[in-house]
Task: structure prediction
Amino acid sequence: MPTNNKRFAARVDDIQPFRVVEVLTRAKELESLGRDIVHMEAGEPDFGTALPVIEAGIEALKNGATYYSDAKGLRELRESISLYYKSDYGVEISAERIMITPGASGALLLLAGLLVDRDDCVLMADPGYPCNRNFMRLVEGKGVLIPVTAANNFQLTAALVAEHWHKPDGVSSSAGGRTVAALVASPANPTGAVISKAELVSLFNAVEQQGGYLLVDEIYHGLDAKGKNGEKTAPSILEITDQAFVINSFSKYFGMTGWRLGWLVAPDWALPGLEKLAQNLFISMSTMAQHAALKCFTPQTRDILDQRRDEFKIRRDFLLPALRELGFIIPQEPAGGLYIYADISQLLGAFGGSFGDKFGRNSQEFCLIMLEQHGLAITPGADFGHHLSDRYVRFAFTTGMDRLALAVRRMKEIFR
Amino acid sequence: MPTNNKRFAARVDDIQPFRVVEVLTRAKELESLGRDIVHMEAGEPDFGTALPVIEAGIEALKNGATYYSDAKGLRELRESISLYYKSDYGVEISAERIMITPGASGALLLLAGLLVDRDDCVLMADPGYPCNRNFMRLVEGKGVLIPVTAANNFQLTAALVAEHWHKPDGVSSSAGGRTVAALVASPANPTGAVISKAELVSLFNAVEQQGGYLLVDEIYHGLDAKGKNGEKTAPSILEITDQAFVINSFSKYFGMTGWRLGWLVAPDWALPGLEKLAQNLFISMSTMAQHAALKCFTPQTRDILDQRRDEFKIRRDFLLPALRELGFIIPQEPAGGLYIYADISQLLGAFGGSFGDKFGRNSQEFCLIMLEQHGLAITPGADFGHHLSDRYVRFAFTTGMDRLALAVRRMKEIFR
Result:
């Protein structure tokens, strides 16, 4: 019997479980009972890692790449990323400004540690990636969720930054400290909304004007639905300034989820602090994973990855109209990423929809019913924030066309 | 040109670079210039990962183990660790209480996040592992360094805990909050000091009496110099209580540094909070690394690892008397781990030693001279704390006998 008074740090109560993980866990339980589940919950590409990358990982292990490596990451990998910015974005980013991290999660941890003092606020869009605010909470800062809608492209804007930026008059208050940064994601999770170059410029200027930092999550880059002339739809903040922080990842476009590798691009002046933090918090990233990642940038692998991107676009182009026909409202057509964020209020009684309480009174209940009764795993909006989250669900098109078609057939039966 | 007022979080000034990394970097620079350097700085076994583990990693990659896995870690690996506690320690630790982490670093991050509120203090020995206090600082807590000496076995004791535990009268003060935990390491870095079972009981009771938590770093377990009848010299706190937290690692005895894998054993009541934190901070650990680690526990691998442990003991048994003969004072004979912590005051003029300022006025200068002039890479005491750190250096016996013999020959010349 514990005799202590079991007390956690206060932050533990404020940090929510990652609900998508709970949906996934329950989905797998149901599968183990023999149920057929269509997985549209997890933000993980279903293709696995491309073969040339796997082979490079095997080669690295055969060559004994099992030792610690530099806390900033393998020099060659940082140089490969530098070349990638040159080839794909036409920008010169010195390898010195690139740090490899244990997933984008590691990059978020470094930035929270570097920039966020106690009570400091970081503005972020609601809905958004759920863990962002928890990294800020970890270091006793605060993620301030700003409601966004179709009216502002489901993204923070210069106007929202100006409106919500907070500068207490020199006195730190537990009721709300000063704002130090804004964090945006383009393409965004869960909406797939992309920030245009013009709007990125405005955002950067708005944040710069406040003396703060702009952090841009670009982990869904490469998975943009290409524009009319085949050009990228999602510009990088690095095309605009060398004074923003970029979070990126080998998990999504590059298909290396289980290897846990991401990267961070930072302004020059921030590098010594970041390196010091990385030495202390990580010592090193996976050495063999970094050797494998070198092969992400070969023409052979890029061809595979681009085919996969095109397949994601085909799925998106199928699922988007199909969901609308079923009665989902989709105010934001995803311009990139792996998700469709869909409003179920027209389907649900609680919001005056057509089906009474048959499918639950909110998106949590809706998702539970879809999973338990109909074998469809989707993520409730509550995972992504508070703003109208009861009305929204997220579909991930991270499963094949046959499975998505099955999901649509099942829903046609359900909503008949 | 940056137009912002470039301001880091206050913690960044308080966090020191990991000096051993700087010694290593400079040593490699000198090598690239053609110098022959004996590496006795880094805490990384020189053997690399055992072949059966590497082969299991290759097999996992061939089988496509490239996806995210559970935030708590692979079930089979947690069960293997549970069996390891049964076979090697004779204790029943449910796999439920074991969480896989990205290195012991990840375990330290989870514990800081779970237990340490702003201004909360965690007692730790000085000298000790340098990053420990920085994890506490990251979450706005504080690592309180308690000077320890040969008189207390270079470890925290029940008496030191009682003396330094701090309970402000209900008021949190930035001058020093309440103490919530004590963190000990056995075998310790840098001294190799082991805490006996009787002393572990006293320590646990002392911390429990204050209503706090005992965290025990056991990452050098398995690398203990065996006792007279071949028994382990380092007991685990898990032999005593199920209410302490244990930090462990696949890096040292298990030889998997570059894979970044550790584990945490926690009391039942702490698991939901820890899992929530791990979901948010890590999403998943390296999946292929976990599959590889399963092979750490086979008799074949254990034989290899035990031979390596015996080799470390041979090195220790060579280096310890040799250093003493050279004039180093070694108050704590290492009972485990990879290090000898040696007092250089008898060698240095600044402390009334025999050589004037010839070898520097303190251990930083001494290490610099040894590296630059004599090709010997060792770590200055300042990496491990403040207490008498100017007088101490750490030798890691993580290089072969021929190299250690060369180091001793060079030092014989130097100190002639």
Q: What stands out?
A: DSSP finds 13 helices and twelve strands in chain A. The two ends of chain A are 55 Å apart (CA to CA).
